[in-house]
């Protein structure tokens, strides 16, 4: 499994530790899930935007074909 080192300020680490503790989870598990949620949200937004562009240009694309 590949690894990744991230750097946080002391304040950021404290906030991460507090949130992970509040959910009864490890900092690593909490941070991993937060990153994956951000990745998936970005992909969802991209797909949503692409679908919108395809719908908006559907008629033009049909005429150009």
TrEMBL record:
Q: Name one Pfam family in it.
A: Arc
Provide the protein name: Arc family DNA-binding protein
Annotated Arc-like DNA binding domain ranges read 5-39
Biological process GO annotation list? regulation of DNA-templated transcription
A GO molecular function held by the record? DNA binding
Record keywords, A-Z? DNA-binding
Per the record, the domain of life is Bacteria
């Amino acid at each position: 499994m590949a690894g990744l080192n991230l750097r946080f300020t002391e304040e950021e680490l404290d906030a991460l530790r507090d949130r992970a503790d509040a959910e009864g989870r490890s900092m690593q598990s909490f941070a991993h899930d937060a990153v994956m949620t951000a990745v998936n949200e970005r992909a969802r937004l991209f797909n949503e935007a692409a679908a919108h562009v395809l719908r908006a240009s559907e008629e033009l694309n049909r005429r150009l074909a």
